[in-house]
Amino acid sequence: MPQIYALGGLEQKAGPTSTVIGATILNSIIVSTAQNLIKKGMKKPPIFYSANVDGGDELNEELYNEYKDSIHYRFK
């Protein structure tokens, strides 16, 4: 995987481009899935909020409590 940043004279570079590409692909899948769920009648697809959004933690805790039996990690 190509590294794009030179580090102060070191031979090794950092910042793999695959991270950006992978995150973009994953976000595209999430958006596409949410759009499909809305088209099928779901009013509010269960998408976790960013922790940077006001009230995000509380909204995520509500989602977690609703879907905790199918989520494979713990909230908090």
Automatic annotation (TrEMBL):
Domain of life of the native organism: Bacteria
Designated name of the protein: Uncharacterized protein
Originating organism: Acidilutibacter cellobiosedens
